[in-house]
Amino acid sequence: MAKVAGILGKKVGMTQLFDSKGEVRPATVLQAGPCVVTQHKTAIRDGYESAQIGLVEFVKEKKLTKPMRGHFAKATASSISSGSARAADLRAW
User: Fold this and answer.
1) Is 74 helix (H, G, I), strand (E, B) or coil?
2) Distance (Å, rounded) from C-alpha 70 to C-alpha 33?
3) What is the CATH number of the domain that holds 54?
């Protein structure tokens, strides 16, 4: 499986930082992690290998759709069974 460099997170907002010269620089504030694996795909079953990861966001169960609840119930991570995750499918090229 190929290594994919990146970060999975949620944009919280914007702020400003001052550099050593005193000039203002814009900066994006991210909430990153915790991330969990929500699905494994194999070459035999799916035709390619990948891992689907999700950013854990705790939301009320009633705000999840039934298909999303079923998808998270299949995941091995118990921390997302009562929460939500935004999935990003990272395929090996």
Assistant:
1) helix
2) 22
3) 3.30.160.810
